């Protein structure tokens, strides 16, 4: 993937632009969720205005809230881009649609989910629109554990707590395990 230019590179993990990704349904074109997610990350970088700096390990996670749907494959990517947060979120939604995501109901099984979870230290809250940092990220092992892989020491811009502190406070009932490398 391309080398980011100095103007768009994140200065530190505190200023990181972070995308969480997940899927729990296979796609006809790409197969298993992990393969779909790898293809989606390649697609994000294809136009040259988004550089993937680092990708976490992939994690297998039980659905939140608990349900009978298949377990998810989740991860986090640290990126650099000159796109605004709004334009980046729009791009994420375009890639989701390209990969077959249809938004029907919250917490439903899905072929792909791309979430903008942090855009540097920016705080964005629009009624019915963009919310950065992601409002529920601090409660979810499937975001925090992979986030630590790509931005250890990251500090939540609202809660002013490190990712490690947030992980320590997670409820014990969230089931997550690192996926074997493929």
From TrEMBL:
One of its GO terms (biological process) is tetrahydrofolate biosynthetic process. Catalyzes the transfer of pyrophosphate from adenosine triphosphate (ATP) to 6-hydroxymethyl-7,8-dihydropterin, an enzymatic step in folate biosynthesis pathway. This is 2-amino-4-hydroxy-6-hydroxymethyldihydropteridine pyrophosphokinase. It is an enzyme of class 2 (transferase). Pathway: Cofactor biosynthesis; tetrahydrofolate biosynthesis; 2-amino-4-hydroxy-6-hydroxymethyl-7,8-dihydropteridine diphosphate from 7,8-dihydroneopterin triphosphate: step 4/4. NCBIfam families: folK. SUPFAM superfamilies: 6-hydroxymethyl-7,8-dihydropterin pyrophosphokinase, HPPK. One of its GO terms (molecular function) is 2-amino-4-hydroxy-6-hydroxymethyldihydropteridine diphosphokinase activity. Residues 106-117 form the 7,8-dihydro-6-hydroxymethylpterin-pyrophosphokinase domain. Keywords: ATP-binding, Folate biosynthesis, Kinase, Nucleotide-binding, Transferase. PANTHER family: 2-AMINO-4-HYDROXY-6-HYDROXYMETHYLDIHYDROPTERIDINE PYROPHOSPHOKINASE. It comes from Thalassospira profundimaris. Its EC number is 2.7.6.3. Pfam families: HPPK (PF01288). InterPro entries: Hppk, Hppk_sf. The keyword ATP-binding applies.
């Amino acid at each position: 993937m391309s080398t980011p230019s100095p103007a768009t590179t994140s200065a530190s993990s505190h200023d990181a632009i972070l995308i969480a990704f997940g899927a729990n349904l296979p796609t006809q074109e790409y197969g298993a969720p992990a393969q779909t997610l790898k293809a989606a990350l390649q697609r994000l970088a294809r136009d040259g205005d988004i550089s993937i700096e680092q990708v976490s390990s992939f994690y297998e996670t039980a659905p939140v809230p608990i349900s009978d749907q298949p377990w998810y494959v989740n991860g986090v990517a640290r990126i650099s881009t000159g796109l605004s947060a709004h334009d980046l979120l729009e791009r994420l939604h375009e890639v989701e649609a390209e990969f077959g995501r249809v938004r029907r109901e919250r917490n439903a099984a899905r072929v792909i989910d791309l979430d903008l979870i942090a855009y540097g230290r920016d705080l964005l809250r629009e009624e019915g629109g963009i919310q950065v940092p992601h409002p529920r990220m601090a409660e979810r092992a499937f975001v925090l554990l992979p986030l630590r892989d790509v931005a250890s020491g990251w500090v939540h811009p609202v809660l002013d707590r490190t990712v490690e502190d947030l992980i320590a406070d997670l409820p014990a009932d969230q089931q997550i395990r690192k996926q074997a490398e493929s």
